[in-house]
Amino acid sequence: MQKTNDDFLLISRHLVMPQHLNPNNHIFGGQLLAWLDKDIYIFICNKLKYRMFVTVSMHNVNFKKPAYPGEILETYGQLKLVKRTSASAYGKAVAFDPETGNSREIIACELTYVAINEKGKPVRIENI
Ligand SMILES: CC(C)(COP(=O)(O)OP(=O)(O)OC[C@H]1O[C@@H](n2cnc3c(N)ncnc32)[C@H](O)[C@@H]1OP(=O)(O)O)[C@@H](O)C(=O)NCCC(=O)NCCS
Questions:
Q1: Is there a contact between 105 and 112 (Cβ–Cβ < 8 Å)?
Q2: Which pTM value belongs to this model?
């Protein structure tokens, strides 16, 4: 069975490496956003069984705790809303310690994607 965290489905795992850090040696916020954008994209593709979307918005971005080099981050998604051509999901990343089982939420946000056709135009989700 797929791993879950409070009704959120595990999407991916990332190892925090030196190239992901800010000058304070914590994870760089833009890196977290890039991972979540890509991972929630994959989550939406799997949920809606379609693979051409563009990101239109990232809302309520909340950087909750720092993450440090060597930590493993797990990204999770939960479908929020499917509308005419767009779909939104909650995304979050947690630092999970496989030795203790402890986890710490690093970032949470909401992302919206629009289904598009080959010409980049929105398509109705009921037709995909
Ligand atoms: C997404 C895009 C195709 C929409 O085209 P458009 O002609 O504006 O289409 P519409 O006005 O009909 O909007 C389409 C849907 O997007 C939603 N939408 C548009 N902007 C939004 C925003 N900022 N936040 C949430 N939803 C938004 C609309 O509500 C609509 O949803 P619905 O059909 O489910 O009700 C176009 O704006 C685009 O290409 N944007 C750039 C996307 C991009 O480059 N992303 C970064 C890289 S992936």
A1: no
A2: 0.95
